[in-house]
Amino acid sequence: MSSDTILNTFQNIKTLAFHKMQTSFSFSANNYSPRRFEILLKYLVENNYNFISIDDIGGEIKGKSVLITFDDGYAHLFKYLPQFIQKYKIKPLIFFPTNQIGKGNNWDYSHVFQNCPHMDTGLIKELSNAGVAFGSHSHHHCDLTALTFNQLTNELTRSKNIIEELINKEITSISYPFGKFNQNVTTKSKEVGYKFGFTMKFPNNDNTFLTIGRFPIYGFDTLFSIKQKIEHGLFYKCERFKSSCISKLSCGTVFLQKFSK
């Protein structure tokens, strides 16, 4: 595919990155409640955005399009996503750390204050049958850039194989945990069979299919701030700076992971 086609693809897609969608208080900046999520969906529909799936990337994208993604695969998503799929025809993509299937979020600092279970095999299968696509979030939800060659290969292949066996569908995409990646990570991702790699950085014109930028959505985001992000509004640069700073804070979890070993 030519560089012009790749550039056109990413200019027409607004990829949003969500994590939690709880109604209760969350010890996390990544919780965006179902009520606000629906307000956002209504805005997107009313303003002629089209919801696309991961399978649409690489093809011809016409008009304003949105790809909705969720990192981590928390169990509570099962309570809300089916109704939004039916009502708004969204085509969500969930990135899952396969070592956490049916377990709590003990990889994250916030589990000390609030355990947040991940989906078990049954929920993953049900959501897959309901139209949710799945991708890899590595096996252990770790910093892929800090791994040896053999460790990196294991993280990428093991996660891919587990999800493929579980839902009987090819897994073509990965979201790099904590948004951390380098040339070794993208090269190995391609070698083991991933076609698409997603980051936590705002989209740029130099994105490739293995460094796809996303717009992170945080708990303190409003419809106004999200519009600034995806519509390149007056405060776009401010939102990009905020997102960059918040992304760096995730290094705290990476540090705690190393400290706890």
What descriptors fit this protein?
single chain; 261 residues; alpha/beta; TIM Barrel; 6-stranded parallel beta sheet; two-stranded parallel sheet; 9 helices; 8 strands; globular
Summarize the structure.
The protein is an alpha/beta fold. The protein has helices at residues 3-12, 34-46, 77-88, 121-129, 149-167, 183-191, 223-230, 236-249, 251-259; strands at residues 13-18, 50-51, 65-71, 93-96, 133-136, 173-175, 196-198, 215-216.
Description of the molecule:
The chain is α/β, with parallel strands linked by helices and 261 residues long. It has one domain (3-259): Glycoside hydrolase/deacetylase (TIM Barrel, Alpha-Beta Barrel), CATH 3.20.20.370. 39% of the residues lie in helices and 12% in strands. It has helices at 3-12, 34-46, 77-88, 121-129, 149-167, 183-191, 223-230, 236-249, 251-259; strands spanning 13-18, 50-51, 65-71, 93-96, 133-136, 173-175, 196-198, 215-216. The strands form 2 sheets. Strands 1, 2, 3, 4, 5 and 8 form a 6-stranded parallel sheet that branches. Helix 5 crosses helix 6 and helix 7 crosses helix 8. The model has no long low-confidence stretch (mean pLDDT 89).
Give the helices and strands, then pairings:
Layout (H helix, E strand, L loop, with lengths): L2 H10 E6 L15 H13 L3 E2 L13 E7 L5 H12 L4 E4 L24 H9 L3 E4 L12 H19 L5 E3 L7 H9 L4 E3 L16 E2 L6 H8 L5 H14 L1 H9 L2
Parallel strand pairs: 1-3, 1-8, 2-3, 3-4, 4-5, 6-7
Helix pairs in contact: 5-6, 7-8
